[in-house]
Amino acid sequence: MTGGPHTKLSNVSNAQDSTISNILLDNFINFYDWGFVDRGSFYNINIPQSGLYGGDRHKLRLSDDPRYTSGKVWEGYRQNWVWESGIDGTTQQPINISGVFIDGTFYANDNVSNPFYIDYPNGRIVFDDAISTSSDVQLEYSHKWLQVVPAEGVSWFRQIQSRSFRNESEFHVENSGGWAVLGQSRVQLPALAVEVIPPRTLEGYQLGGGQWVNNEVLFYVITENHWECANIMDTVLYQNDKTIHLYDPTQVGMSGVSPFNYRNELRENAIPSGLYPNLVDNFYWRKCWINNSRSNDITQLSPDLYIGSVRCSTQVNAI
């Protein structure tokens, strides 16, 4: 006996599928992550390239990660390396990482003598076999200016790391300040943290059925200076009255076109299938209307730490 509709959960086909709150979270993170990159918010790091405050941005440093043999993991001074392509908001295109230099010798991505993979989110190169810890490792790559992260739900402690652009000369000093924290536990500034509050209200969609689902989305902007904080907050506010298309994260996961595998290595079909515009086109779910956007004042918590917040309402015909 299967029972009738009165014995079943409404609007749930599979209890393990993403529901509206998680769908909104995934989509808003990807919308802003792609949106800022598409408008040119990234830096190309060529060889050689020094920063304004000293250091060599193209040089990677040995990562002190207890999960790996010393000499396997080498990281850049900034995380969130750009893997996306097809940027049309600027004439500059991000660098496509083709390989790495070790003591002046170039090793392509597909080399067999010293194989490695690229961990784009954490900004590092991971070798299959450890190389000498005194090696000179250099790389041409691009990194994102803004880090877009979920405000809650991460499975590890995350620590805000300020002055990452200004600490370039300290980057190569072992266990120096914020660099002693593992890469996946650092949130480098500027950062945009996204929080989705579960639906507050429902409204009838039409005679005969359907519901508008109304959520609130909060954006926490954390930066090292007032200008960046105001600039990012303004950008988020500018999206008021915009309609975006949502993709279905469950279908993306089942299809196998999500950009990264379990170790943050770029999947073979990430370009172009895993790009945000293609996820929206190929796994379209619903339209989302952004409205009633408003912001709070910027608060200076310390000489180089500013925080502001933006809140918006969303409406989706989801059930």
List the helices and strands and how they pair.
Layout: H1 20-38, E1 42-45, E2 50-51, E3 54-56, E4 61-62, E5 73-75, E6 99-102, E7 105-108, E8 116-119, E9 124-127, E10 137-138, E11 141-144, E12 147-150, E13 159-161, E14 186-188, E15 191-206, E16 209-223, H2 226-237, E17 243-247, H3 249-255, H4 270-273, H5 276-282, E18 284-295, E19 299-302, E20 305-317
Parallel strand pairs: 12-15, 13-14
Antiparallel strand pairs: 1-11, 2-3, 4-5, 5-9, 6-7, 6-10, 8-9, 15-16, 16-20, 17-18, 18-20, 19-20
Give me the secondary-structure category.
alpha+beta
Strand residue content: 25-35%
Compute the separation of the termini in Å: 26 Å
Cα-based radius of gyration, to the nearest Å:
22 Å
The run of helices and strands is HEEEEEEEEEEEEEEEEHEHHHEEE
Assembly status: single chain
Please estimate the helix content: 10-25%
Low-confidence stretches: 153-158, 179-183
How many strands in all? Answer: 20
Number of helices: 5
Would you kindly provide a written description of the structure presented here, covering whatever features stand out?
- With 319 residues, this protein is an alpha+beta fold.
- It has two domains: 20-38 and 191-317, no CATH class; 42-144, no CATH class.
- Helices cover 15% and strands 35% of the residues.
- The protein contains five helices and 20 strands.
- It has helices at 20-38, 226-237, 249-255, 270-273, 276-282; strands at 42-45, 50-51, 54-56, 61-62, 73-75, 99-102, 105-108, 116-119, 124-127, 137-138, 141-144, 147-150, 159-161, 186-188, 191-206, 209-223, 243-247, 284-295, 299-302, 305-317.
- The strands form six sheets. Strands 12, 15, 16, 17, 18, 19 and 20 form a seven-stranded mixed β-sheet that branches.
- A hairpin with a 4-residue loop joins β8 (116-119) and β9 (124-127).
- The longest helix has 19 residues, at 20-38.
- The chain is globular, with a radius of gyration of 22 Å.
- Mean pLDDT is 84; it is low at 153-158 and 179-183.
